[in-house]
Design brief:
The protein is of the alpha+beta class and 200 residues long. The chain is built from 2 helices and 11 strands, in the order ααβββββββββββ. The strands form 3 sheets. It has a 5-stranded antiparallel β-sheet, with helices on one face. Strands 6-9-10-11 form a 4-stranded antiparallel β-sheet, with helices on one face. Strands 3-4 form a two-stranded antiparallel sheet. The radius of gyration is 35 Å and the shape is elongated. The chain is 30% helix and 29% strand. It has one domain: minor pseudopilin epsh fold (3-Layer(bab) Sandwich), CATH 3.55.40.
Length: 200
Protein backbone atom coordinates (compact mmCIF):
# COMPACT_ATOMS: atom_id res chain seq x y z
CA UNK A 1 0.00 0.00 0.00
CA UNK A 2 1.62 3.14 -1.16
CA UNK A 3 1.25 6.42 0.67
CA UNK A 4 0.87 9.56 -1.35
CA UNK A 5 2.75 12.61 -0.10
CA UNK A 6 1.35 16.02 -0.64
CA UNK A 7 3.71 18.48 -2.36
CA UNK A 8 5.30 21.02 0.00
CA UNK A 9 3.42 24.21 0.34
CA UNK A 10 5.51 27.14 -0.99
CA UNK A 11 6.59 29.65 1.67
CA UNK A 12 4.66 32.85 1.66
CA UNK A 13 7.06 35.77 1.16
CA UNK A 14 7.07 38.24 4.00
CA UNK A 15 5.86 41.65 3.01
CA UNK A 16 7.27 44.89 4.39
CA UNK A 17 5.07 46.68 6.82
CA UNK A 18 2.57 48.90 5.15
CA UNK A 19 3.10 52.62 5.56
CA UNK A 20 1.50 53.86 8.74
CA UNK A 21 1.47 50.39 10.31
CA UNK A 22 2.19 49.82 13.98
CA UNK A 23 5.65 48.38 13.22
CA UNK A 24 6.74 51.53 11.42
CA UNK A 25 5.29 53.70 14.17
CA UNK A 26 7.26 51.76 16.77
CA UNK A 27 10.43 52.14 14.66
CA UNK A 28 9.97 55.88 14.29
CA UNK A 29 9.32 56.29 18.00
CA UNK A 30 12.81 55.14 18.94
CA UNK A 31 15.15 57.89 20.31
CA UNK A 32 17.18 58.95 23.35
CA UNK A 33 15.59 58.39 26.69
CA UNK A 34 15.72 60.98 29.47
CA UNK A 35 18.27 58.86 31.35
CA UNK A 36 20.57 58.75 28.30
CA UNK A 37 20.32 62.52 27.80
CA UNK A 38 21.07 63.19 31.49
CA UNK A 39 24.06 60.82 31.36
CA UNK A 40 25.48 62.57 28.29
CA UNK A 41 25.07 65.99 29.92
CA UNK A 42 26.74 64.77 33.12
CA UNK A 43 29.72 63.34 31.21
CA UNK A 44 30.11 66.53 29.18
CA UNK A 45 30.01 68.61 32.37
CA UNK A 46 32.68 66.50 34.06
CA UNK A 47 34.96 66.69 31.01
CA UNK A 48 34.54 70.45 30.67
CA UNK A 49 35.21 71.05 34.38
CA UNK A 50 38.37 68.94 34.31
CA UNK A 51 39.64 70.69 31.17
CA UNK A 52 38.85 74.26 32.31
CA UNK A 53 41.97 74.83 34.51
CA UNK A 54 44.26 73.71 31.67
CA UNK A 55 42.41 75.93 29.21
CA UNK A 56 42.62 78.95 31.55
CA UNK A 57 46.34 78.32 32.08
CA UNK A 58 46.87 78.10 28.31
CA UNK A 59 45.02 81.40 27.75
CA UNK A 60 47.09 83.14 30.47
CA UNK A 61 50.33 81.82 28.97
CA UNK A 62 49.33 82.92 25.46
CA UNK A 63 48.45 86.41 26.70
CA UNK A 64 51.71 86.66 28.64
CA UNK A 65 53.84 85.54 25.70
CA UNK A 66 52.09 88.04 23.44
CA UNK A 67 52.86 90.90 25.84
CA UNK A 68 56.42 89.62 26.23
CA UNK A 69 56.99 89.69 22.48
CA UNK A 70 55.57 93.21 22.33
CA UNK A 71 57.89 94.38 25.11
CA UNK A 72 60.89 92.82 23.36
CA UNK A 73 59.89 94.58 20.14
CA UNK A 74 59.56 97.90 21.98
CA UNK A 75 63.05 97.56 23.46
CA UNK A 76 64.56 96.75 20.06
CA UNK A 77 62.68 99.68 18.52
CA UNK A 78 63.93 102.00 21.26
CA UNK A 79 67.55 101.00 20.60
CA UNK A 80 67.27 101.39 16.82
CA UNK A 81 65.45 104.72 17.10
CA UNK A 82 68.08 106.09 19.49
CA UNK A 83 70.76 105.35 16.89
CA UNK A 84 68.67 106.59 13.94
CA UNK A 85 67.72 109.85 15.65
CA UNK A 86 71.10 110.30 17.36
CA UNK A 87 69.13 110.98 20.51
CA UNK A 88 68.92 109.57 24.03
CA UNK A 89 65.76 107.49 24.42
CA UNK A 90 64.58 105.57 27.46
CA UNK A 91 62.03 103.18 28.91
CA UNK A 92 60.60 104.12 32.29
CA UNK A 93 58.48 101.89 34.53
CA UNK A 94 55.73 103.26 36.78
CA UNK A 95 53.08 101.87 39.11
CA UNK A 96 49.84 103.26 40.51
CA UNK A 97 46.96 101.99 42.62
CA UNK A 98 45.37 100.23 39.64
CA UNK A 99 48.47 98.48 38.28
CA UNK A 100 51.75 99.09 36.44
CA UNK A 101 52.94 100.50 33.11
CA UNK A 102 55.95 101.44 30.99
CA UNK A 103 56.54 104.42 28.74
CA UNK A 104 59.04 104.94 25.91
CA UNK A 105 60.18 108.56 25.70
CA UNK A 106 63.02 111.03 25.33
CA UNK A 107 64.23 113.50 27.94
CA UNK A 108 65.11 112.76 31.56
CA UNK A 109 63.99 109.77 33.65
CA UNK A 110 61.27 111.79 35.40
CA UNK A 111 60.12 113.86 32.43
CA UNK A 112 57.34 111.48 31.35
CA UNK A 113 54.95 109.25 33.30
CA UNK A 114 52.32 106.64 32.41
CA UNK A 115 49.31 105.02 34.04
CA UNK A 116 48.10 101.43 34.28
CA UNK A 117 45.30 102.38 31.87
CA UNK A 118 47.87 103.07 29.12
CA UNK A 119 47.74 106.87 29.18
CA UNK A 120 50.92 108.99 29.41
CA UNK A 121 52.05 112.57 29.85
CA UNK A 122 55.29 114.57 29.98
CA UNK A 123 56.05 117.28 32.54
CA UNK A 124 58.84 118.74 30.43
CA UNK A 125 57.71 120.67 27.32
CA UNK A 126 60.71 119.34 25.39
CA UNK A 127 60.03 115.66 26.16
CA UNK A 128 57.82 113.47 23.97
CA UNK A 129 56.27 110.03 24.34
CA UNK A 130 56.92 107.34 21.73
CA UNK A 131 54.62 104.73 23.27
CA UNK A 132 53.09 103.68 26.59
CA UNK A 133 51.66 100.35 27.72
CA UNK A 134 49.45 99.78 30.76
CA UNK A 135 48.90 96.64 32.83
CA UNK A 136 45.80 97.06 35.05
CA UNK A 137 45.45 94.63 37.96
CA UNK A 138 42.43 92.89 36.45
CA UNK A 139 44.53 91.93 33.41
CA UNK A 140 46.50 89.51 35.59
CA UNK A 141 49.84 90.90 34.38
CA UNK A 142 52.31 93.39 35.84
CA UNK A 143 55.68 94.82 34.83
CA UNK A 144 58.59 95.40 37.20
CA UNK A 145 62.19 96.45 36.67
CA UNK A 146 65.47 96.43 38.55
CA UNK A 147 66.03 99.98 37.25
CA UNK A 148 63.23 102.53 37.22
CA UNK A 149 64.46 103.98 33.91
CA UNK A 150 66.86 102.56 31.31
CA UNK A 151 68.57 104.91 28.84
CA UNK A 152 69.56 103.83 25.30
CA UNK A 153 72.64 105.71 24.14
CA UNK A 154 72.66 106.74 20.44
CA UNK A 155 76.44 106.47 20.03
CA UNK A 156 76.81 102.69 20.35
CA UNK A 157 73.27 101.60 21.19
CA UNK A 158 74.33 100.75 24.73
CA UNK A 159 72.33 101.33 27.88
CA UNK A 160 72.86 103.16 31.14
CA UNK A 161 72.25 101.33 33.33
CA UNK A 162 71.48 97.82 32.15
CA UNK A 163 68.68 96.06 33.92
CA UNK A 164 66.08 93.32 34.03
CA UNK A 165 62.46 94.02 33.18
CA UNK A 166 60.12 91.32 34.50
CA UNK A 167 56.68 90.51 33.16
CA UNK A 168 54.75 88.63 35.86
CA UNK A 169 51.34 86.95 35.72
CA UNK A 170 48.78 86.39 38.47
CA UNK A 171 50.12 82.93 39.35
CA UNK A 172 53.70 84.18 39.84
CA UNK A 173 55.14 82.93 36.54
CA UNK A 174 57.43 85.47 34.91
CA UNK A 175 59.39 86.23 31.77
CA UNK A 176 62.57 88.26 32.25
CA UNK A 177 63.86 90.71 29.65
CA UNK A 178 67.54 91.23 30.40
CA UNK A 179 69.01 94.40 28.87
CA UNK A 180 72.82 94.35 28.85
CA UNK A 181 75.07 97.41 28.99
CA UNK A 182 75.67 96.92 25.25
CA UNK A 183 71.95 97.20 24.58
CA UNK A 184 71.44 93.53 23.81
CA UNK A 185 68.15 92.01 24.92
CA UNK A 186 67.51 88.40 25.82
CA UNK A 187 64.49 86.74 27.41
CA UNK A 188 64.27 83.81 29.78
CA UNK A 189 61.83 82.28 32.26
CA UNK A 190 62.67 80.94 35.73
CA UNK A 191 61.84 77.25 35.97
CA UNK A 192 59.93 75.44 33.24
CA UNK A 193 56.49 77.05 33.55
CA UNK A 194 56.52 78.82 30.18
CA UNK A 195 57.31 76.97 26.98
CA UNK A 196 59.45 78.53 24.29
CA UNK A 197 61.75 80.37 26.70
CA UNK A 198 65.14 79.22 28.00
CA UNK A 199 65.40 78.77 31.72
CA UNK A 200 67.02 81.64 33.65
Amino acid sequence: MSTQQNPPTPATPSCPAAPGSRAQKRHRARGLSLVEVCSAVAIASILSCSAWPNLARWIDNARMQGRSQELTGDLLLLRSQAIARNQDLRITIHSDEQGTCYVLHDGGPRDCTCSSQGTSQCESPTATVLKSMGFPKDSGLSVQSSARSILFDPLLGGTAPGGTIRLIDRSGLEIRHIVSLRGRIRTCAPGTGISGHPSC
